[in-house]
Amino acid sequence: MINKREFLKGSAAMLAVAATSRAGAAAAGKSAPRTNWSGNYRYHAPQLFEPSTVAEVQQAVRSATNVHALGSRHSFNGVADSSVAQISMLKINDVQLDTQVHTVTVGAGIKYGDLARQLDQRGYAVHNLASLPHISVAGAVSTATHGSGMKNGNLSSAVTGIEFVAADGSLHQLTRKDNPDVFPGAIVALGALGIMTKVTLKVEPSFQMTQVVYRNLSFSELEHNLAAIMQSAYSVSLFTNWQDHRCNQVWLKRRVDQGGAEKPPALFYNATLATRKMHPIDDHPAEACTDQENKIGPWYERLPHFRMNFTPSSGEEIQSEFFVPFEHGYEAIMAVETLRDQITPHLYASEFRTIAADDLWLSMAYQRPSLALHFTWKREPEAVAKIVPQIEAKLAPFAVRPHWAKVFTMKTDPLYSRLNDFKALAAKYDPQGKFRNDFVRKCLYE
Ligand SMILES: Cc1cc2nc3c(=O)[nH]c(=O)nc-3n(C[C@H](O)[C@H](O)[C@H](O)COP(=O)(O)OP(=O)(O)OC[C@H]3O[C@@H](n4cnc5c(N)ncnc54)[C@H](O)[C@@H]3O)c2cc1C
């Protein structure tokens, strides 16, 4: 959670340091100011460790008084920050596929895009991906990062086991099979349980997909058809700028083994098939986007919106996202629509996606099928700080949960019924709060 003062302070400082900052200090020690990917958040940790082995991770954890894992830096708030030291896991990225039990065990820092290529070469896939392939596996599963699809759980729901370093430097394993009582608390952990060194994910046989885009879907169609629309493809995303009571774009990602190669109809709930490749932000060039126009391609080049070697989204941006129970999805959209004239001037694009319910204690989709309302803001921190609480207030009647990795201001501790169990689990591996940063303290402990 970010309070308004801190948010503005951090963001203003950013503009001054963004040009010189980078996450690659050579070893533990003082480094230049460093920022997240977007440049809207400046890390406070003076030290950055970049271990290449698990033994080096253990040594770094033992040596630091306060420490937090760092992935690929794509979060928009202080969730990966520390007052003393961060441990970047990007150099620990090996891949071990087990074709007997259909799992892959990866070094925690591997990026989904790199993993996907290696998996596909060997005939395997993961069930879903986020809008971008650039993020690390451990960073994504720690914040319940998701794609879309009525039947698709978030990326953490594919985890079957983890290995991690606890606060005293000891190494631990937890698996869904052997530790069913605590495993659901250990995956979406915001880095507060320890430093994951390995993550094991379920895999399935590789599959091919197509992607088509429709333009101008009226919000009126959502009133009675939201479920039908969201289940009309393996993964569905609706984009809007909140004006004219419509979604500007509908992205349908279809599996070829589920009819995805069939010619798409010209009309989809009265939206019209796009005649050119589109970027979710209408006037951005579409080169950075994965192929559309019903071209068949591998799962990892259709599930994300953006291609690996291109800048995803806009770059100079801030993101927020809010999850409501799917059954209240349409009402939630209508509630936010009342703020359209305050939202649109500061927005690149909003997106609606669905996430299947899961059992992960701190997941935004914990025990409820969810509709996610996402906002890619222009990098205008003052305006964002004003509008986000208004959106939160509109969504409060629907027991809204904010995305852990994006900008929000609301209190989160009442939203998770297993929070005390999570704290007990964290206390077991981190009795003194070595992995607790300001973000975790504010969101989970105040
Ligand atoms: C352009 C863009 C598009 C995005 N699209 C989506 C989307 O489609 N869906 C979605 O849900 N989110 C999306 N996000 C948000 C993004 O998925 C999350 O911020 C994700 O957590 C980023 O992973 P990361 O590797 O950058 O982690 P970081 O931001 O570096 O860290 C995030 C958290 O993971 C923890 N962590 C990292 N590594 C470890 C480890 N080894 N052990 C323990 N904890 C660890 C950190 O401590 C921190 O708490 C997007 C972000 C951007 C910038």
Tell me briefly what this model is.
The protein has 446 residues and is an alpha+beta fold. 23% of the residues lie in helices and 24% in strands. It has helices at residues 4-17, 54-63, 112-121, 137-142, 183-186, 219-230, 329-337, 340-343, 381-395, 419-429, 438-445; strands at 47-49, 67-70, 85-88, 95-98, 103-107, 124-125, 159-165, 171-175, 195-202, 204-205, 208-218, 235-240, 246-255, 267-268, 271-273, 297-298, 317-325, 347-355, 370-378, 401-402.
As a percent range, the share of helical residues equals 10-25%
For the biggest sheet, the summary is: 10 strands, antiparallel
Instruction: Compute the CA-based radius of gyration.
Output: 21 Å
Mean pLDDT: 92
Indicate the structural class: alpha+beta
What small-molecule ligands were found? flavin-adenine dinucleotide
CATH class bucket: Alpha Beta
Cα distance, first to last residue? 11 Å
Number of helices: 11
The coarse silhouette is globular
How many domains? Answer: 1
Q: Count all strands and give the number.
A: 20
Question: Which features would summarize this protein structure in a list?
Answer:
20 strands, alpha+beta, 10-stranded antiparallel beta sheet, 446 residues, single chain, globular, binds flavin-adenine dinucleotide, Uridine Diphospho-n-acetylenolpyruvylglucosamine Reductase, domain 3, 5-stranded antiparallel beta sheet
Describe this structure in words.
- This protein is of the alpha+beta class and 446 residues long.
- The chain has one domain (90-410): Uridine Diphospho-n-acetylenolpyruvylglucosamine Reductase, domain 3, CATH 3.30.465.
- It has helices at residues 4-17, 54-63, 112-121, 137-142, 183-186, 219-230, 329-337, 340-343, 381-395, 419-429, 438-445; strands at 47-49, 67-70, 85-88, 95-98, 103-107, 124-125, 159-165, 171-175, 195-202, 204-205, 208-218, 235-240, 246-255, 267-268, 271-273, 297-298, 317-325, 347-355, 370-378, 401-402.
- The strands form 4 sheets. Strands 11, 12, 13, 14, 15, 16, 17, 18, 19 and 20 form a 10-stranded antiparallel beta sheet that branches.
- Strand 14 and strand 15 (271-273) form a beta hairpin.
- The longest helix is centred in the last third of the chain and has 15 residues, at 381-395.
- The model is unreliable at 2-30 (pLDDT under 50).
- The site of flavin-adenine dinucleotide (FAD) has 35 residues, from strand 2, helix 4 and strand 9.
